[in-house]
Amino acid sequence: QTGLTTLDQGFVNTAATQSAITYIDGDAGILRYRGYAIEDIAANSTYLEVAWLLIHGELPTAVELDRFEETIRRHTLLHEDLRRFFDALPHSAHPMSVLSSAVGALGTFYEDSLDVHDPEQVEISTIRLLAKLPVIAAYAHKKALGQAFLYPDNSLSFVDNFLKLNFGNMAEPYVVNPVLSKALERLLILHEDHEQNASTSTVRLVGSTEANIFSSISAGINALYGPLHGGANEAVLKMLGEIKASGESVEKFVERVKNKEEGIRLMGFGHRVYKNFDPRAKLVKESADEVLDALGVQDDLLDIAKELEAVALADDYFIERKLYPNVDFYTGVIYKAMGFPPRMFTVLFAIGRLPGWIAHWREMNADPATRIGRPQQLYVGPTERAWPRR
Ligand code: SDX
User: Fold this and answer.
1) Is the whole-model pTM more than 0.95?
2) What is the DSSP letter of 37?
3) 276 CA distance to ligand 1 centroid (A)?
4) Which end of the chain is more exposed for a tag (fewer CB within 10 A), N or C?
5) Is the CB of 292 under 6 A from ligand 1?
6) Is the minimum distance from the CB of 126 to ligand 1 under 6 angstroms?
7) pLDDT block averages, 10 residues each, the chain of length 390
């Protein structure tokens, strides 16, 4: 501590802003979007209805929702130059890198409507992001597969259009799978916002410089990519696969985590805020068995995950550190059962989180109290010294 400056590594005890969007009680495991409990929302709403709620603060009327969905449908096509953008990337490109690059590039097509102080331009940018991010995500997936890109099908719902873009192909008609649609819609809703997590804080910090919303969201995608944040859902599946391939017992793996061998962690466990349970993890775990059964998929990685959870939750090392499954622990097994490759898991998180990023960017942008983010530091480097004679 020097003067008024207190070091708070990782902002554990620092509120960077005020927000009315999401409320989390980490001890009680409560998560509410604009006052509504996540359990009620997940059981009754849709991705776009929740997006409207997060952005506007109230649930939309039926007319508002219809118009919102219809307007988004009319903006799903990408400019053909942006489709060609993908040709410049290698097939091996990680879809999260493709996503952040393409979203940053997306803004360049709308140079005439990026004024952050013009409500109409902010509104059309909101529509363009919600409409086009799923298409960009599906193109990143098709690029990795070496398959032809499909065009959006506006006769389908938001989620079914996204699923068709990923799993449809040019040779045969796409058949909607209601089990898949319902499961994905619910998972997207569970990811839509989470107050000041690292990627949302990134979106707000970049936006505080009056950077346009596309650049701010692109920065948020990059922050989400990290394995300690959204990248954890991909890392969990890698971890479960390694345990299975090694043939070692779950107990043995947990011992290695406790010994911090090569810095390994129990991915999908722990949370800065939740210290008893992550309500989203509970909801995902509840649906995992149901979704895999409905999809006719049996995956022993789910059994390994459940065993890992049981062993860890009975172990003092995890109990003392209040480490419980977070939202990323079970989602990967479901995404895999849906047919997504592990490198698409964090992309699905990004699509889920987009409405929250937009809502926070707009709240920050509209708040007269917003100032450019510029944290202080405690200097610990050398005191002044003379330039050496040479
Ligand atoms: C998300 O912020 C959000 O809301 C994020 C998110 C959202 O919706 O936006 O909820 C999404 O990012 C969920 C988290 C996904 N990440 C992971 O699952 C990666 C594994 N988890 C950790 O790396 C960690 O728990 C974090 C990053 C989630 C939280 O980090 P903190 O709060 O800085 O905790 P820490 O690293 O200081 O750990 C405290 C102690 C340490 O022990 P000691 O060194 O003091 O002995 O707990 C240990 C850590 O070693 N620890 C773990 C662990 N997580 C923390 N030990 C083993 N396995 C783990 N997963």
Assistant:
1) yes
2) E
3) 13
4) C
5) no
6) no
7) 82 96 97 98 98 98 98 97 94 97 96 95 98 98 96 96 97 94 97 98 98 98 98 97 96 96 93 95 93 94 96 96 96 97 98 98 97 96 95
